[in-house]
């Protein structure tokens, strides 16, 4: 790694000022800064891509181990099931082994009770008017103005 201290940076700046000149130095410094920023972003992107690929490899290994464990459990369950069937069929002669396994019935369609096209609980306008309920939307300021007590001078 390049060891740059404050003294070395000052020396580089002085040489650049003499070689490039004071007129072009700010533009050159901006260009160098943008190039360094792009290089840093590129390095960060490469690091992130390497980390993602490493994590992906780890996830693939974990997936393989999980699938192998699941297959082992499934094979052991088959062995237990076959042992159980042998013990049941060998113990009694009245058990039927050709009976199909229990299968749940498919769900039955039930018509919804509510007709979504009709309003079920709409209050009629004549009832709202008779009871003094609001029939139209009003802003808060309009509602306050409506119920504000009248002054004597109006």
From TrEMBL:
Chain residue ranges for the region called Disordered: 70-111, 131-154
Principal localisation: membrane
Biased composition (Basic residues): 145-154
GO molecular function ontology, one term from the record: protein transmembrane transporter activity
Pfam families in UniProt: TatA_B_E (PF02416)
Keyword Transmembrane: yes
Name of the protein described by the UniProt record: Sec-independent protein translocase protein TatB
Source taxonomy: Bacteria, Pseudomonadati, Pseudomonadota, Betaproteobacteria, Burkholderiales
Gene name as annotated: tatB
